[in-house]
Write a structure and sequence with these properties.
Layout lengths: L2 H18 L2 E13 L2 E12 L2 H20 L7
Helix pairs in contact: 1-2
Length: 78
């Protein structure tokens, strides 16, 4: 398989993952207060939403790349 097909398959997989997983939640340390022997750290939970149009576009572009990559045959008639 050539690179275009592989990149297209990766885009399709990421797009399907984006449709299945609506958002990604992660934790971030925001502020640290150090008062001698006492240390205070605030952990904040943040969410990153994945736009549905981006996931659909990744699937469409990936599928197009796979089709173009499979149809493009190298010229071996030299």
């Amino acid at each position: 398989m050539n690179r275009i097909v592989i990149i297209g398959l990766i885009l399709v997989a990421l797009g399907i993952g984006g449709l299945v997983i609506k958002s990604v939640t992660y934790r971030a340390d925001s502020a640290t207060l150090d008062l001698g022997p006492v240390e205070i750290t605030a952990t904040e939970e943040r969410s990153l939403d994945i736009p549905q149009i981006a996931a659909q576009a990744a699937i469409a572009v990936g599928a197009l790349m796979v089709i173009v990559g499979l149809l493009a045959r190298p010229d071996t008639s030299k």
